[in-house]
Amino acid sequence: MRRRTAPSLGACILLLSAVCRVVDGVSNSAHLGPTLASSLDDDAFLGFLGEVGECADSPVPNLVFTGGKNKTETRLPSLTVEGVWRSSMNHSLDDITLCTNTGIERSYMLEGQCTSWGGPVVAILYLSLELFDTNNALHIEQARAQAADLHARMEEAGGCALDLVLVGDAVPANESWAYPYNSLRNQAIARARTRLVLLLDVDFLVSTGARERLLARDAWVWALDATYARRQAIVLPAFQTTLNLSLAEGTAVAHDSAAAGSKAYMKAEMAAGRITRFAPFFLKGHNATDYNRWFRSSTPYPITYQRGYEPFILVSRLHVPWFDERFRGYGWDKVGTLPGPPPPPPRCPSAPPTISHMHAMVATGFQLVADPSIYVVHRPHIPSAGYNHTFTGPAYTKSHRATAAMEKLSVIGMELIQDVKAGVYPEHGVTALAACRPLERWLQNPVVAWW
């Protein structure tokens, strides 16, 4: 059994409610509780993360998943990695990686998000290609040049430590709208090189000081205890600008609200009618956060999961399951529920929901807890191609009947629920990166070491 006399702060993965306090490598606790020995070995942990990242370079192509009572077959996206640009800025395992993704047309949003976070970021840059198009090689070279320029610009600015990955996806022309958001999320998670990850869509800004508050000693120990020992996901309350604002006005308000980093400021902006809770058109999506309680709270509080809940979370890199890659396009992975109200107006969030992922996480034992001091703010933008495809046609425009795209995702959502209830849903999700998960060998048989 391996022993160390001065574990680092990040090495203190708390287990069985034990409390560990370490400053500058010296313990200030008379008793250090049991810890996962594998997690204490920084070199081994880094090696593991490197293996998973390399594995993500070669996702299984043309993978077909069969799920649900009807054994429906769904082909998962076949992404190809076309380029990787790593930051020259160093960061510790004990930092937090923001994992995100974007299409090239929205890459400008990455710069604002990078600055608002200020730490490690893994961003997957998506390039949609037309199947059998003879110009694809040219499109890839052009995208590489754009990606290299973006990365160089952000490295020079020094706003964050950005690892940028360009991935291509060759699909039939009539499916170019179907953004493979869950596949891209998985690619980002696979490449994170820290113990904790923040899962956030690119059109969100993080409140000023969020990373520093999370990395403060007491908050960091609490976060490790919550995410590792108690298998919790830490929820960051989400806000958006109101729809009476123009695009320019909304963008300015979003940046100011995130920059303020203040609950009092957010409360005043809500009273003034410039800020509201995120996605008011789909109340189930964020009701469980309990915004009134968040504004009153100075300490973390538990959240009771409700079906339809889709928060943005901070979670253990080792424990977070893969996202279900059957979902692509524009949201409505509503685990079987079709929308009743009209679609969100233009500029409303086009970032797809994560409901299926949260449903699977809670079903496999995750608990939710709200952070009382930090938040994220949606940055308004024009609707995506996936949004426009999903909410078009007379059937929906006139009577709000489900479109074919919505019905397809609803079927997948029902299959997910059926498999979870039957206990046959894959523990780590449905993904072309499934082969990478066995590399996390110590999760299967954790070794407990006493200090």
What do these coordinates show?
There is one protein chain. The protein is an alpha/beta fold and 451 residues long. It has a single domain (39-449), classed as Spore Coat Polysaccharide Biosynthesis Protein SpsA, Chain A (Alpha-Beta Complex), CATH 3.90.550. It is built from 15 helices and 19 strands. The protein has helices at 37-40, 42-56, 108-117, 136-157, 181-191, 210-215, 217-229, 247-260, 263-271, 291-296, 355-363, 385-390, 394-399, 404-422, 441-444; strands at 22-23, 26-27, 35-36, 64-67, 72-75, 80-85, 96-103, 120-130, 161-171, 196-199, 204-206, 232-236, 238-241, 275-277, 301-303, 312-316, 367-370, 376-378, 448-449. The strands form five sheets. It has a nine-stranded mixed beta sheet with strand order 6-9-8-7-10-16-12-17-15, with helices on both faces. It has a four-stranded mixed beta sheet with strand order 11-18-13-14. Strands 1-2 form a two-stranded antiparallel ribbon. It is globular, with a radius of gyration of 21 Å.
Per-chain topology:
Blueprint: E1 22-23, E2 26-27, E3 35-36, H1 37-40, H2 42-56, E4 64-67, E5 72-75, E6 80-85, E7 96-103, H3 108-117, E8 120-130, H4 136-157, E9 161-171, H5 181-191, E10 196-199, E11 204-206, H6 210-215, H7 217-229, E12 232-236, E13 238-241, H8 247-260, H9 263-271, E14 275-277, H10 291-296, E15 301-303, E16 312-316, H11 355-363, E17 367-370, E18 376-378, H12 385-390, H13 394-399, H14 404-422, H15 441-444, E19 448-449
Parallel strand pairs: 7-8, 7-10, 8-9, 12-17, 13-18
Antiparallel strand pairs: 1-2, 3-19, 4-5, 6-9, 10-16, 11-18, 12-16, 13-14, 15-17
Helix pairs in contact: 11-14
Signal peptide: 1-25
Subcellular location: Membrane
Main location: membrane
